[in-house]
Amino acid sequence: MEAEIKSKFDNVSIELIPSGGGVFEVILDETLIFSKKAVKRFPEDGEVEKLIRENLN
């Protein structure tokens, strides 16, 4: 997922932080935009991309 996201948004700082038990977080320009641990589920198709676009505006 990280490579796919970075290929679509090459001009922003995106970091996926893996953790134990399948937990991960997506940080955009030092702002947490998705946390699997917090929402207790994987993102839906296109959800992270949508969150990135919303946070870029």
Description of the molecule:
The protein is an alpha+beta fold. The chain has a single domain (2-56), classed as 3-Layer(aba) Sandwich (Glutaredoxin), CATH 3.40.30.10. 37% of the residues lie in helices and 26% in strands. It has three helices and three strands, in the order αβββαα. A three-stranded antiparallel beta sheet has the order 1-2-3. Strand 2 (24-28) and strand 3 form a beta hairpin. The protein is globular, with a radius of gyration of 11 Å. The model has no long low-confidence stretch (mean pLDDT 85).
- The CATH architecture category equals 3-Layer(aba) Sandwich
CATH-assigned homologous superfamily:
Glutaredoxin
Question: CATH top level?
Answer: Alpha Beta
Rg estimate, integer Å: 11 Å
Question: How are the strands of the biggest sheet laid out side by side?
Answer: 1-2-3
Q: Specify the helix fraction band.
A: 25-40%
The sequence of SSEs as H and E is HEEEHH
Mean pLDDT over the residues? 85
Main sheet record: 3 strands, antiparallel
CATH fold-type name: Glutaredoxin
**Could you tell me the number of beta strands?**
3
Low-confidence stretches: none
Tags for this entry?
57 residues, alpha+beta, Glutaredoxin, 3 helices
Give the arrangement of secondary structure elements:
Layout: H1 2-8, E1 14-18, E2 24-28, E3 31-35, H2 36-39, H3 47-56
Antiparallel strand pairs: 1-2, 2-3
Describe this structure in a few short sentences.
The chain has 57 residues and is α+β, with helices and mostly antiparallel strands.
